[in-house]
Target: Phosphoacetylglucosamine mutase
Amino acid sequence: MSFLVVPSEFTRAGNTTHTGEKFPIPDDEKFSYGTAGFRFDAKKLPFLVFRCAYVASLRARQLNSAIGVMITASHNPEEDNGVKLVDPSGDMLNGQWEKYATEIVNASDAELPSAVAALEKQMSQIEKSFIARGLVQNARVVCGMDTRVTGPHLMSAASQGSALFSVRFENIGVVSTPILHYIVKSHNFPQFANPTLHGYYTAIKEAFMELYMETEEPEGSRYQPKVIVDCANGVGAPRFRDLMKEIPSDYLEVEFRNENGRLNHQCGADFVKIKQELPENFDGIQEPKSASFDGDADRLIYFRSKKGAEKPRAAELFDGDKIACLYAMYIQEQLKAYHETKPTYNIDMGIVQTAYANGASTRFIRDTLKMKPIIVKTGVKYLHEEASEFDIGIYFEANGHGTVVFSSHFDSIIRRHPQTLVPLRRLALFSRVINETVGDAFADLLAVEICLRHYGWSMDDWAEKLYRDVPSHQVKVDVAKREDFETTNAEQTLVKPIGLQEEIDKTVAKYKESRAFVRPSGTENIVRVYAEADTLENAIELGETLKKIVLKY
Ligand SMILES: CC(=O)N[C@H]1[C@@H](OP(=O)(O)O)O[C@H](CO)[C@@H](O)[C@@H]1O
Ligand SMILES: [Mg+2]
Model:
């Protein structure tokens, strides 16, 4: 560049929404790159997406790679939208670049040219070395969007933002967030998969069907080869339908619900998890096995109607923790065959959770699986990073976002090496069903089905054979300033406001088998309270008592 000509509809002053309405953004309004990118009322996003796409194009040139831009606000209401950037290997954006993106977004219209010039100056040395080696042909911005009506207008903002720096732009249309991550990685690592929607379907389908063939259902199996999917009225509906068209229904039958209603409204993985309630259009009758996606299909929660519950629509959840433990058990069993060959290299495996993991799952990992659970801060980037320390790293947030990551050692010893032992072939195939770039509701669902079939488990079996959840309750508390709350100890202990943690401790001590913590959200201006106790009534009482204490501060 750097002759900066920004179309007026994408400036702060002229910011224009998808209906053509002007929605100016004051120069002093600041935005932060949260746990999952920039996420706000969709009206604010046109100027913001334009600037982010420009940053993405710079990063693409700097690394001579494909960089992803995903336009989504996931499980948030339909009126919101958001944008996040994806790094070349399909990971979340590098931390230093989150800062660059924040600087560019927060510049006033008048400051923008100098902010851009400063950033480009920092980049130019690195980029020059690529250009000198003739390496610019791989730079491109790959952009996907969820099903929100504001998506196409933001897609156009992204396209014009990356055009500023003459970087190739690829619109991959309405996709789930994990598909975008997968395609970005496929562009940069061609041996991974074909960098197209069809490449994604083919890779996952083939791995699933081969693994299915390597799976033996035990005698007396109670496995149910059917699942009813709540699509949250989001992108899961069209895209999972596409994928399931490729897989014959005698492998797995999927019934789709909540495909065309209001996005995330009374349905979806977040609703089911927080309310512990059946989503709309489910009545608990004749629904043996059901699962929910969130709006952009990167979360998966299994559920069924809760037997004998007082609340009429209460749901029993098989959440991220239950999925993680199921995977761990399965992988551990296959891995045993590898270690029995007395190899020189020991393939290690770890599980990463957050403080929201149900206490019973953490005990199951420690006492039954004999693994050391690792607890990190909330946010996929922290879990992903920690899990990447292992050859096989399983990570899940209780809300159903998670995956398994595999090291380069695993890749060369197991995945790319011909295997004669069935358990090792299973392990290699399992790693291909999984979308290791990021939690993926589709891939995770298929992997869960393989595990359940392998063990011959019904939902009753899955509920009983791992562990029983400790009753828990989550509450959102509206506060004036979430910045007033600061935590330590993987967010489980408050250091600010002073004195609050002591009061929490005193209250928690009054309940049996209790555990609770309070932390500020990274995505909403609220404080979250999480409480566990011996009964659901007590967990609710403890949570609500803590809410009152928080409000007092
Ligand atoms: C308790 C909870 O579910 N928190 C969610 C939520 O983060 P908060 O920082 O708690 O608002 O949104 C994140 C992004 O989607 C997700 O990673 C995380 O798990
Ligand atoms: Mg999501």
About this structure: The chain has a mean pLDDT of 94.
